[in-house]
Amino acid sequence: MSKSTTTFLRKPLSSVLLAEARRPRRTFAPISKHARSLATQVDTPRSTPSGISPPPPPPVETTPETLEQQERERKARKIFQDAVAATAPRNNWTKEEISAIYYQPLMELAYQAGTLHRRFHAPGEVQLCTLMNIKTGGCTEDCSYCAQSTRYQAGTGVAAQRVATVDSVLEAARQARDNGSTRFCMGAAWRDMRGRKNSLRNVAAMVRGVRALGMEACVTLGMIDGAQAAELKEAGLTAYNHNVDTSREFYPSVISTRTYDERLRTLGHVRDAGINVCSGGILGLGESSTDRVGLLHTVSTLPSHPESFPVNALVPIKGTPLGDREPVAFTSMLRTIATARIIMPATIIRIAAGRKTMSEEKQALCFMAGANAIFTGEKMLTTECNGWDEDNAMFGRWGLSAMKSFEKKSPEEA
Ligand code: SF4
């Protein structure tokens, strides 16, 4: 026991209480509401050495503009809070609501997206998907970012190749499965499937083979109609990828050979056939944040949310019209992922092209904010990809694990 404590205990209790009662009390002027609102760590006024209190801060002028601003902020916070409290997906979002979420302070947005993620998904589970280009180059479309368009072939040097054989595709799928991938995606540089009966039959055989390996099968073949979607469904296709790329408004600056509505029609055929829709966008095309909100609005207001939403960061390819573009800011990528997680809580959010340029810490931040799928393997369609060993090591360091095949329900069943 310390000396001061024993001294205190030796005094009679009544004399201690009397001394305490006689001690002069300091009185403070009541703290104004304004001063309290400005307080941070210290919320009582300090006296100067001379005992004179500092002058109160000048009153905040309340103009109609500041009141309007405060009201806007209050509404945005309410929209954000309601969205984060969701227990089921909704597809009646307005652009204003999505903007209110998208522009929240980034750390708070990422944190809340991660919290919501845990309500709909097993935290730390990430789907491993491998992509194979089954038909490279020779595409007649003019997508400004793409190395496979014949229009930019002189600059990119990517020539048209023949379609891969079923056997070679299944061999690649087997290798992907043995390395831990559970979804195999096959991409072909075609505008659409009109007049490609044999090719579609070949693709159907690939899909059957991939499914027989116990993997989820996904294809991206350009525009398809209802009958073609039905044929792919019959073969056992799990998902069809067809990105809308960006907002409806910005889209014509990127592609002129097919319309936004044509893209949406293909998504409709896929959905009607009972195949999961995989549809996302590319960031860094020169779009504004309003366009990123527009992209999110398009996919989150489809009749049902896409099962998968890939977020690509443009990989500028020399020889294409966008070959010299600066990389998109990571904060825009993170903001898009976090907003997507909040407005499409049951969807798989896929970090797609451009991951190769992201540090492991940046990827971890994306996983924390709700991303739960990656492409892994040797290559994306024409660009580099992080390999299995590299991703495996990253998973070990961050405590991530691979999602099993068919583990995730579609958003409609969530
Ligand atoms: S993105 Fe697809 S449709 Fe567009 S040019 Fe490339 S391969 Fe063709």
What report would you give on this structure?
- The protein has 414 residues and is α/β, with parallel strands linked by helices.
- It has a domain at 117-402: TIM Barrel.
- Helix content is 41%, strand content 11%.
- Strands 1, 2, 3, 4, 5, 6, 7, 8, 9 and 10 form a 10-stranded parallel β-sheet that branches.
- Strand 3, helix 10 (226-235) and strand 4 (239-241) form a beta-alpha-beta unit.
- It is globular and about 90 Å long.
- The site of iron/sulfur cluster has 9 residues, from loops.
- Residues 139, 141, 143, 146, 148-149, 189, 191, 222 line the site of iron/sulfur cluster (SF4).
What is this structure's SSE topology?
Elements: H1 3-10, H2 13-22, H3 33-38, H4 64-84, H5 95-102, H6 106-120, E1 125-135, H7 153-156, H8 166-178, E2 183-188, H9 197-212, E3 216-220, H10 226-235, E4 239-241, H11 260-272, E5 276-278, E6 281-283, H12 289-300, E7 308-313, H13 330-343, E8 348-351, H14 360-368, E9 373-375, H15 388-398, E10 401-402
Parallel strand pairs: 1-2, 1-9, 1-10, 2-3, 3-4, 4-5, 6-7, 7-8, 8-9
